[in-house]
Amino acid sequence: MRTPHVPLAAGLLTLALLLAGGAAATAASAPLQPSSTAPGSGRVGTTDHILTTVWTAVGQVQSGRIYVYRSLNSGKTWQSYFVTSDATHGGGVASLTLDFANRSDGWLLVMGSPGVGNAPWAIFHTVNGGATWTREPAQGSPFVRGDGQAQIHFTTDETGYIDTLIPMYSPMRVYVWVTHNAGLDWTEHYFTLPSSEPFSGQVTAPKFTTARAGTLEVVPADGGAPLTYATTDGGAVWLPIH
Question: pLDDT value at position 147?
Answer without folding.
Answer: 54
